[in-house]
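Quick start: read one record
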Amino acid sequence: MTPVELSRTVLHAVRRAVDEGELAVAVLPERVVVAPPGPGGCGDYATNVALQLARPAGQPAPAVAELLRTRLLRTDGISDVVVTGPGFLNISLAGGADARVVRDILRAGPRYGYSDDLAGQAPQLHAAPEVRALVLMDSVARVLRSQGARPQLHCARPPQDAWVRTLGVPSDITVGTGTDDPLRPVPAPADPTPLGRDAARWALLHPAPHDRPHIGDSQSEQHLAQRETNPLFRVRYAHARTRALVRNAADLGFTPEPGPVAPHGDVLPLLADHPRVLAATAAHRAPDRLARHLVAVADALAPLLPSVLPLGDEKPSAAHRARLALAEAAGTVLAGGLTLLGIDAPEHL
């Protein structure tokens, strides 16, 4: 069960409690936020939805939490629910949850995290007539489409041909002066096209929109460096290594099979969080959130990769197959995320 699925499960429990008269709440929340538990918490995820509902329901938060706890314990995929503090729900997922996350990713492929949550919406994005704003708008539009929206792109002037040819800025932008959803990041201080499409887009999208991108200064060459100090290189190298591991495993006669992987560090929680990151990127019009998430996945994956293949005369085991499946899932998330940023994810690097 992914965080997005768990959020929907908790929201469904709230709605059932209201429908059956256990909670008297006039306006239900549109979504429930679940996150790793904080200090004093336990389990896999926690939510403060009971605290949100307590006042409108006219009940103490612990009482609201307890009735939701009872409902959630009947749900497949949830092994335990504990109420802590003033009314936090701490949720433990059933055994095999890790394997299910990996299996879900491999089944969905690069579209893992896509949803129809924004279906029927057609946000009007308006970019300032500047290269960074247009690249930002293009990436925001890609992520919005991944969530079911059909954004309309506007700019006061048509994009320059070099921006279309080199940076992949769409040429079919509607020319106009609309003001809905204006995108005005700190402008690029210099022409990014000499960096090429991938490095230039990363240089423009990785910093938060209110931060100045490092282009045309002494740090500009950093975006092209094939070394660990370059976050784009780390992301693409991690993806290429996962693809190489799958090829090498096939040569050794075994394939990925999701299963328990211990220890796996932060890799699985980060992969499970990917749908939430895409939703937040779309909501806040902030591709930098996705870029930073990809860096975190790549960095968390690095310690796992040396243990994926058997060493010496060692025979492939279930643990090797599970680690290979986790590595392939991480590579799939990296490739899908780079695509939404408009950046290539090569299999060989």
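The chain is about 45% helix and 10% strand.
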